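[job 0412] stage=complex_fold ligand=adenosine monophosphate status=START
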Amino acid sequence: MSTFSSLGLSEPLLQAITELGFETPMPVQEAVIPHQLTTSQDLVALAQTGTGKTAAYGLPLLQKMDMSHEVFSPRAVILSPTRELCLQIADDLESFAKYLPDVRILPVYGGANIEPQIRALHHGIDIIVATPGRLIDLMHRGAANLEAVHTIILDEADEMLSMGFSESIDAILEGVPANHTTLLFSATMSKEIERIAKNYLHDAKEIVVGSRNEGAEHVNHIYFMVHARDKYLALKRIVDYYPKIYAIVFCRTRLETQEVADKLIQDGYNADALHGDLSQQQRDLTMQRFRQHRIQLLVATDVAARGLDVDDLTHVINYGMPEDIENYTHRSGRTGRAGKKGTSICIVHSRERSRIRDVERTIKKEFVRGTLPSPKEICSKQLWKVIDDIERVEVEEEEIADFLPEVRRKLEWLDKEDLLKRVVSREFSRFLRYYANAPEIEEISEEKKKAKGAGKGKKSEGKSEKRKDGHRAEGDHEPEEGYTRFFITLGKVDGFYAREIIGVVNNRCPGPKIEMGRIDLRPTFSFFEVPEEEAGRVLKGLKGLTYKGRRIGVDIAEMANNSVEAAPKHPKKRAQQRFEQKFAPKNTKKRRFS
Ligand code: AMP
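[job 0412] stage=complex_fold status=DONE, emitting structure tokens
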């Protein structure tokens, strides 16, 4: 087994990391550190958050850094997707550099006053840790000069791309001297990452590191299948069944995140929301409170939860399956850390069953189908917690001594049994009251779903259910029960994602907020579902929608086959296809929806 010393690290760095408690190198460090210390070859590393990659690139970078301070402008640039990560990376580097002569590390990120960042850059900086957008801004203002940069590190490159930083990254990579070294770290290898690697990296060494240390090994995966309308009730039951739960509840959109958090707070839970619509200050405060366990349930989007490093989550709850399998790996890897057991729970509706199978295949682990705890089971679990808490209470003999005689006098007419009943009822009343009349949750059984599916198959026999290539198209879905499915001729190439769909629907339909159901995004068009009773309002609201001078088609997608490639026999489907072709955008250049 290698040691940090055998990897070639210098004494001051060894001393600093020993103080940080690093004993043995993690796999990514074993692979990257000696490579970086001995060569200037580019590198692509597939490694997730939590694998120790900051030290893997940070330690050799610091060791190779010229500390003479003769050069004024930065010698290294680290790009990262969020402000939190920038701060975390800069902090880590500062700790590693504790025993090195003065290294000037500056985190710069959007959403903060740019002036102090410009001033700091004028004073001379060795390593700049930046979000791509802010760095471009600083370059345009002439404050960040990248002419002396010899190393550029892209941290969480996939995340930066999914946040729309692709063009900024291109511009930055084009603006650094040709003979620099590039290190690219990404949790996934998407087409876009491949493109960047191909265009900007030369003869790169590739390394793949497994998921975060022991994490994945210690995680159980459980799913509960309910109707979409019962997802929140199911969440409550699960949370109630684990009185000591300390969890992140992942939602797919900011809107859903806020709504779930609001409902939980209203229902008396110790919860809060974390998403990109909140100010930086609010997010910082929420994260701090969660880290300190002052919040028990953090309802968050994938991106917003990125900067949060907590090691002792008992559960991760997926409020619906994430769009990408990689996101599921990220989410579930947040529990089961530091040698503890963790549980990743998925609350899914019937149409997400296939996603569970996809994830099972990818992570090579089987999910257990869970049965929601009954009201009685929950009540006895909660009651146990109440009496356990009472048993463990530290009695402050001296502090209460003066008050006890009066308490005794007041309660002397009650015997022990009465007293017990009162204490328990008082502590426990929220659950007793709720579960005495708790709404029923119908769990969807596999058999029932199969039977339903078989019936559907028969009904649509002879109709075009498949694309020409024999596969079902991704959007081939019937709406979730109680929902109406819409088709819209705006897609991912228009910069039209779930957030934009939710935004446009709610902006154009005044009145109470519309709770969106499933959203399926395609390159040039999309599907979305809204509660049946809102369909009229949505149709009316979106009538005549235009975007960049282009008329946007919106209509109800009634049939199971929404594939544009198919040649449907059904006249209604042919009409739909004509409709799609008529409205399909010709220009596929990326545009942002405004
Ligand atoms: P990272 O992937 O860089 O975010 O690192 C994840 C966590 O692992 C951080 O809290 C690091 O401080 C910690 N860490 C990194 N390397 C080691 C190591 N060799 N031994 C123990 N902890 C480490």
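Residues 416-436 form the longest helix (21 residues).
[job 0412] exit 0
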